[in-house]
Amino acid sequence: MAKVSFQRDRLTKITYAQVAAMSWFIFGMGPAFALLREDLGVTRTVMAFHNVSGSVGSILAGLTSTYLIHKFGRGNVIRSGAMGMIIGLLLFVNGPSINFTIPSMFICGYSGILIIQCNAAFLNNHHGEAAPAAISEVNALGALVGFIAPIILGVGIATGFGWRIGLGWIVLAFLAIELFRGRDTSAFGSAKTFESSADHDQPGPLPKLYWAAWLAISCTTAIEASTLTWASELLRVQSGLSIAFATGAVGTVVLGMAIGRFLGSRLVETHDVEKLYRLSLLLTLLSFIVFWQGQNQYVQLPALGLMGLFMSVHFPLGITRMMRASQGRTDRAAAMFSVGSGSAAGFIPFLVGATADFSSMALAFAIPGLALALALVLAVKNPVPAGSIAESEIGL
To answer: What fold does the segment set 1-200 form as a domain?
Structure first.
C-alpha cells in the first residue's frame, strides 16, 4: 500500500485543538467524580447519576445532530457544542450541589458528542483518502492529553489550588479555540440544501454494511469504558493491590493508548485499515484474557498496558470503517455512532458492576470480553474496503 500523507492546515489544527480539549475533559472526569463526591458528601450511587445524565445527553445528541447539521451547518453546530461545553463545565466546577452538577453532565454529554462527531466527519471529508491517518493522529494527541489530565488534577490539590482548576481551565481553552476559528465557520460545513457535496450527506438510508461496522465499534467502546471503570477493582481482587495503587495503575491503559495512537497514525499511512483493525482486535482480546485471568500484578499490569496499546486504534480505525461504509452519509453515520457508543459506554459498565454485586468481579469481566470477541467476528465477516462500497449482507 502506497503511503498516504496529509497536510496539517489551519482547519486541521483547529480541529486537533478542540479534540485535545475534549480529551482532557473525558479523561479528567473519572478522578473528578471521586473528588466531587467527597466535597458534596454524597454516595457512590448518587454520583453514578452523573454518568447516566451524560449518557442520556450523548444519545440525544446522536438522535438530533443530523437535523441540526443540515439546518445550521456543521461549522455552526461545532461552535454551539463548544458553547455548551463551556456552560456545562462552569456548572460542574462551581455547582454547590447535585442539582447543578447532574444537569451539567447532560449538557456536557450532549455538547461533547456534537463536537466529537462533527470533527470526525469534517476530518473524513477534508482529508479524503488520508483521513485514517489524520483521525488516528488526532486521537493519539487526545490520548496523550488524557494521560496528563488526572496528573494536573492531583497537582492542583497538592499545591492548594484545588482539583477544580484542572477542569476549569478547559473553559478558557474552548473560548480561545473559537476566537482562533473566527466568525465564519462555513469552512467546517455550511447550511445548504441536500446535494452531493463535501458538506452534506448523500440521500438514502445507511447501508447494511454500515451497521456491522457500527456494532463493532459499539462493542469496542464497551470494552474501553468497562476497562477504565472496573479494571482497578479486578486488580484489587486478584492481585491484592491497595485501592490507591490499583486506581493509579489504570493509568497504564491510557499511557498504552497514547503510545498506540501515535504509532497507529503512522501505520495507517502504509498499511491497510482492515488488516490493522482485525489484528488490533485479536491482540486486544489476547491481552484481555491474560489480564482477566492473571492473579498478580506482574502479570496483570503488563497485560493492562498492552490492552491500552492494542485497543488504542479501535476508535480511529473503527470510525474510519463506519465512514467508508456509510457511502457518503458521514454526518448520519457519526450521529448513529453517538447513539451506539453512548449506550454501550453506559450500559455495559453498569452491567459489569451489577453482575459483580451478585456474583464476582472475575465473572462480571467476562461481559466486556464477549463484546470484544463479537467485534472481532464482525470485522472478519464484514470487511469494509476503501473507496466506493456496495451494500452487502451482514455476516456473523
So the answer is: Growth Hormone; Chain: A; (1.20.1250)
Dihedral angle of Cα 112, 115, 116, 120, to the nearest 10 degrees:
170
- Please determine, for residue 108, whether its predicted confidence score (pLDDT) is greater than 90: yes
Domain 201-391 adopts which CATH fold?
A: Growth Hormone; Chain: A; (1.20.1250)
Q: Give the chain's mean pLDDT.
A: 82
- Residues 188-225 have pLDDT tens digits of 877 654 344 444 555 457 888 999 999 999 999 989 88
Quick one: pLDDT at residue 389?
42
The domain limits of the chain are: 1-200, 201-391
Taking residues 274-279, what's their average pLDDT? 92
For the stretch 29-72, pLDDT in tens is 766 776 777 788 876 667 767 877 888 898 898 788 878 888 88
Q: Are 1-200 and 201-391 equal in CATH topology?
A: yes
